[in-house]
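Troubleshooting entry. The earlier prediction with 6-O-phosphono-beta-D-glucopyranose gave an output that would not parse, so I re-checked the input for stray whitespace and re-submitted. Clean input:
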Amino acid sequence: MVVCTEETFAGQPCRRLTLPGGDSVLVALQGAHVLSWRSGGRELLYLSPRNVWDGRSAIRGGVPVCFPQFNQRGPLPKHGLARNSTWQALSSTQDQGALTLEWRDDDASRALWPQRFTARLTVALTPGALRVTLDVDNTDAQPLAFSGALHTYFAVDDIAQASLHGLAEQAEWDAVADRHGVAADVLRFAGEFDRVYAAASRPLLLDAGGHRLRIAQSESWGQHVVWNPGADKCATLADMPADGHRRMLCVEAAQVYAPVVVPSGAQWRGWQHLSLV
Ligand code: BG6
């Protein structure tokens, strides 16, 4: 039986799910942001120790929900509005091993994005695995177009030793060099790495050093994004310690290029599923 508790982390209201075996997940109401996932006695997500924790500024680490815009591909703030907004925890699903948070359009969202919607993020915890699901309901009379990501920051022992498997031959856009190509069999990381991949049909495998994770995503996401700022870019990020880049790798379930279009009254669902192997 999973236990759901209310707690604060760095002054921010959160909910925690805990399994009898000790696995737990901590979610902030700001952004429906997963801050921590513990399994097998270790923390599996990276969370920067330099976050501002003012309830509004984007949180660096965990699982940022980027919606309704990926990065700077549109007129909205970088990575959209969801991560800077306060979501509501819905109590009804807590006893089923899952926690759902909801965010509906409000005056602040409509001031920047004139769109009616309901977004829900469901975090489902099972032994050794975490599923994060984003649901988007278009409650407007017009179509809803969005891009975005579940921007997961995985903890790695040492980025120089980490490797990502499963993208071989997938179309690759290197955003740093602005170069198109195909992915290598195994991705390794030395310096800034910011690439978009066509979604693979099979799960990816992250070798993080002391543990390995299987990373799957729903077919509704068009791409994966793999990101590490490297030392030089990391030094310019006020919310990261200088060596933070050595301890993290983002592997994101993403919609980067063509936006998803949800017809009036329709729904869209996208998830990312993480499991220890
Ligand atoms: C990644 C992008 O998804 O997010 C990068 O590919 C970006 O280009 C990174 O730098 C982090 O973005 P932010 O806004 O959280 O610093």
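This one parsed fine. The pocket of 6-O-phosphono-beta-D-glucopyranose is lined by residues 58, 71, 78-79, 151, 175, 194, 225, 227, 252 (CB under 6 Å).
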